[in-house]
Amino acid sequence: MSAARSKKKHNTDDYLRMYRQMVRIRAFEDNANQLYLSAKMPGLTHMYSGQEAVAVGICEALTPEDKITSTHRGHGHCVAKGANFREMFCELLGKEEGYCRGKGGSMHIADQANGNLGANAIVGGSMGIATGSALSAKRLGTNHVTVCFFGDGATAQGLWYEVMNMAALWKLPVIYACENNGYSEYTKTDEIAAGSLTARAEAFGIESFRVDGQDVLAVNQLAQRLVERCRKGEGPFFIELETYRYHGHHVGDINRDYYRSRDEEAEWKKVRDPISNFGNWLIDQKIMTADELVAIDKEIVSDAEAAVKYALEAKYPDVREVDMHVYAETAAWGETQ
Amino acid sequence: MTREITLSKAVNEAIAEEMRRDPAIVLLGEDVAEAGTPFKVLSGLVEEFGTDRVIDTPISEPGFMGIAVGAAMTGLRPIVDLMFGDFLYLVMDQLCNQAAKTHYMSGGKLKVPLVLRTNMGATRRSAAQHSQSLQALVAHIPGLKVAMPSSAYEAKGLLKTAIRDDNPVVIFEDKLMYNDKAPVPEEEYLIPFGKAHIKREGRDVTLVATSSMVQVAEQAAETLALEGISAEIVDPRTIVPLDEETILRSVRKTSRAIVIDEGHQSYGVTAEIAARISEKAFYHLDAPVIRMGAMDVPVPFSPALEDITVPTAAGVVENARRICRGELVHAA
Ligand SMILES: Cc1ncc(C[n+]2csc(CCOP(=O)(O)OP(=O)(O)O)c2C)c(N)n1
Ligand SMILES: [Mg+2]
Predict the structure, then answer these.
(1) Whole-prediction pTM value?
(2) Distance from CA of B26 to the nearest CA of A (A)
(3) Is A44 part of any domain?
(4) Model ipTM?
(5) Given A102, A128, A328, which is nearest B167 (Cβ)?
(6) Distance from C-alpha of A157 to C-alpha of B222, rounded to nearest angstrom
(7) Which residues face A178 on adjacent strands?
(8) Hey, are the CB atoms on B71 and A139 less than 8 Å from each other?
(9) For a substitution probing ligand 1, which of A72, A157, A242 has the most ligand atoms within 8 Å of its CB?
(10) Is the pLDDT of residue B22 over 90?
(11) Across the strands, what pairs with A10?
């Protein structure tokens, strides 16, 4: 096989995985939304639908050893970093087999085995954690890169400026990835963010980039480059990704005309949907046929439905677990007196 | 071999010994390297361990606290130096929402082995924002452990245990005690968490005292002894976990208790310990349990005012006399 063909094959696998992962996120969210609407899910949850190219484009540039920190809108990051549907749905439903034994729920899913240090219900709350993970990489020589996902609203938190300053001073391998979906809760970004976000990071001497967050290939190519440069000690970096959330702020935010028009939503879905645009590109490039893509979609939807069914029937944690994991068991302090 | 060293030296030795033992330990804080902190507690460490491990940070308490949490989750064992206990308010989100809850929220998957070293203690004429004793604030949060050393000996042994513990631990050093000397063994030792120390045995009244209040209790006990009142002093050493058993055993023996801590009295450490004694040793008591905390006022600057806000030996003596005579401290 010629070198050119094997490269093409390799790319084809990557493209397919990216397509699948985006569809998996969409399918996960459609089911989560359904669980909420049918009152089968405790609490609320924030849908990632529409932003899939961000999580997938970035996480596909990472290894399982690389770390991410996530947000209240975190299902997409979790799936993209390698999590399974079953454990995720179990967590959303508060079941024992959930990633966090039902103790975290939607807003705290962590999947340490795949490098997901956790979603966070404090806006901007994980910016320090991501930067600390990068400090570990540098001090321990593990060479892992950390990506800190956060929303446009989180750029208003002072913590970001404190940790960016230290990350730049100490040349840490961390990428701050701001998913600018145009809104924080029910407020437009223009109303809460003065000036330019990239200029803020640049003020710390951090190289900054803006990219179309609906274009998975553009996101992935940029992420690959920056991850490589982080490994060479050239971090930190900042990326602003322009994107859009399809649902309300959370699943219960249904009547939202007062802050966002239906026309605007329809326009993004029609023109800038990351999955259908990428699917069409795969067809245009003759990498896949439309039928093949439909088959993939179907298979994933049925996987998701099976996982939901499993999770609905799974058992709740035993009540004796309520005061487990408050403190970690310390193996041994050593000799004490 | 035992020699007398200052509390400051004890802390420095504990950190140096642990850093030699475990390369994953790093120190983070403001002016911790060449300056060795404003209290000079960390002098000499950067010379031995270098700036990769003794890391000077900008004045960004939430920032470096958050970095420590993430570092602890991914393989380092950070010791954070928070220059004044009063700055705890600045790090509350990272400490209480992140560090304290991560292990639980992840169903036991993630651990946050970090130590937050900070200080407490009034009467240094530092006024309301540099004098607070905020241990109750963090003791209230499940997931955090809280140590309160009462001498150089405890400072060293508790800090070494804190560093080896796999949980976030907050350790409060009384900043007025940094130059106080106490006998400290040359050999390595650790003090277990959740194990109180009976500092002095007695029959008539139990004085449960934390940190520098142990010295206050000791002075009071000397005076009381001259009057024929025998006081027992219990130093919990860690308030989370709390060695309830030792405290209750002492109170069952003496039938009277005074709880002394330098934090504000209302909703404080003294309130918690007094409540546990009342709940669990009620039928052994001959008098109401007395709380002695700092007055519920911001710490004033003027020496004329500041000195009356904290518990004193004279105050402990007075309360002990009364409850031993069967008099009321507070009107019924
Ligand atoms: C510190 C803090 N303040 C407020 C909130 C309530 N809150 C939850 S999500 C959110 C909006 C966040 O906007 P953004 O960062 O843009 O993320 P998005 O929801 O758009 O993904 C707010 C205000 C919170 N969780 N934490
Ligand atoms: Mg937003």
Answers:
(1) 0.95
(2) 9
(3) yes
(4) 0.94
(5) A328
(6) 54
(7) A150, A240
(8) yes
(9) A72
(10) yes
(11) none
CB-count exposure of residue A20 (10 Å: 0-12, 13-18, 19+): middle
A75 in ligand 1 pocket by Cβ < 6 Å?
Answer: no
In chain B, list all ranges with CATH 3.40.50.970. 2-185
What is the residue range of A317's domain?
3-323
**Residue B78 φ then ψ, to 5°:** -75, 145
Q: What is the pLDDT along chain A (337 residues), one digit of tens a residue?
A: 344 455 566 799 999 999 999 999 999 999 999 999 999 999 999 999 999 999 999 999 999 999 999 999 999 999 999 999 999 999 999 999 999 999 999 999 999 999 999 999 999 999 999 999 999 999 999 999 999 999 999 999 999 999 999 999 999 999 999 999 999 999 999 999 999 999 999 999 999 999 999 999 999 999 999 999 999 999 999 999 999 999 999 999 999 999 999 999 999 999 999 999 999 999 999 999 999 999 999 999 999 999 999 999 999 999 999 999 999 998 778 755 4
Q: Is residue A337 part of a domain?
A: no
Which CATH superfamily includes the segment(s) B2-185? Thiamin diphosphate (ThDP)-binding fold, Pyr/PP domains (3.40.50.970)
CATH 3.40.50.920 maps onto chain B at 197-325
- Indicate whether A332 belongs to any domain: no
Q: Is A330 within the bounds of a domain? A: no
**Which CATH number does the domain housing residue A17 bear?**
3.40.50.970
| Mean pLDDT over each residue of chain B, to the nearest integer | 97
Class of domain B197-325: alpha beta
User: How is residue A206 written in tokens?
Assistant: 């951090």
Closest CA to B156 of B200, B186, B113, B197: B186
How far apart CA A53 and CA B46 sit, in angstroms, is 45
Total domains in chain A come to 1
3-state helix/strand/coil string of A276-311: HHHHHHHHHCCCCCHHHHHHHHHHHHHHHHHHHHHH
Shortest Cα distance, chain A CAs vs residue B287, angstroms: 34
**Angle, alpha carbons B86-B92-B96 (nearest 5°):** 130
- Is A283 a pocket residue for ligand 1 (Cβ < 6 Å)? no
Which of A128, A134, A337 minimises the CB distance to B191?
A337
The Cα A308–Cα A314 span in angstroms is 10
The atom number, within ligand 1, closest to the CA of A152 reads 16
Q: What is the pLDDT of residues B240-279, one digit of tens each?
A: 999 999 999 999 999 999 999 999 999 999 999 999 999 9
A230: enclosing H helix or E strand: helix A216-231
What is the Å distance from ligand 1's center to A222 Cα?
Answer: 26
In this complex, do B94 and A128 lie within 8 Å of one another by their Cβ atoms?
Answer: yes
Min distance B331 CA to chain A CA atoms (Å): 40
Residues with CB under 5 A from ligand 2 (ion): A 151-152, 181, 184
